[in-house]
Amino acid sequence: MTAVVSFTKIGAVATLRIDRAAARNAMSAQVWSELMAALTTAEADTAIRAIIVTGAGGNFVAGADIKEFVAVDGPTAEARSRQITGHYDRLRRSPKPTVAAIDGWCLGAGLELALACDVRIASDRARLGFPEIKLGIFPGTGGTVLLQKLIGAAAAREIALLGEPMTAERAHALGIVRAVVPATDLEAAARDIAQKFAALSPFAIAKAKSVLDAMLDADMSAAREAEYRAYRACFESADRVEGVAAFIEKRKPDFKGR
Fold first, then answer.
1. Is 67 inside any structural domain?
2. Which CATH number fits the domain that encloses residue 109?
3. Cα 64 off chain centre by
4. I need a surface site. Which of 145, 178, 196, 202 has the fewest CB within 10 A?
5. Using CA atoms, how far apart are residues 5 and 135, in angstroms rounded to an integer?
6. 132 labelled catalytic
7. How confident is the model over 186-198, as a mean pLDDT?
8. 132, 227, 236, 249: which is the annotated catalytic residue?
9. What's the pLDDT score for residue 119?
10. 198 occurs within a structural domain
11. Could you tell me the residue range of the domain that residue 19 belongs to?
12. Are 124 and 38 in contact (CB under 8 A)?
């Protein structure tokens, strides 16, 4: 099986790069397995002080691999939600600072992945959003809760309920990304931030992150339980079956509200 996540190390900075260019880097079970393994490697290397997460081929991550949704039932969806949310939390709680370098499409699972990083830099051609509602589901693997925690209720509702992609400039205005740069400068900008992290005390950063995460996690458990149950219910609906089928068949879905 061809690897889909690469690990490179330059000085004190590691780069984890998702490379499924033909699928616009869609998150699959293989991607998750390799990404978590790469994160473990980076965390175990004491010489690494910062981690960049990015995608290959002009995209960050265009979403989850929808083909893996076809045979998913409600209980499986809930179990999947708990597992993948755990992966995002693992990245978010890493003692090492993380930077998401976002180019092209950053949708669904891709936006959830970016939100799990400490800092986000976007290219001027990046497009971010949660389009899941158009499939008869919603961003139910941690995204709904975390987005609202990070940017507030009003903006989070607009993004999650409309499902429309936003420009990098809009994401910057909402505080989702730190800066917007030309696509040709994206990796250099991400590396600049990573190197600033690398020059700081890794002990102090780890401790500061633990406090920031504790504050972010406050009251999140109850919201996550609601998210898991609602995600399961969506996968048990006829609308989800129709939405996924329409996406695969490249047609407009005919939702019935059940």
1. yes
2. 3.90.226.10
3. 10
4. 196
5. 27
6. yes
7. 97
8. 132
9. 98
10. no
11. 5-184
12. no
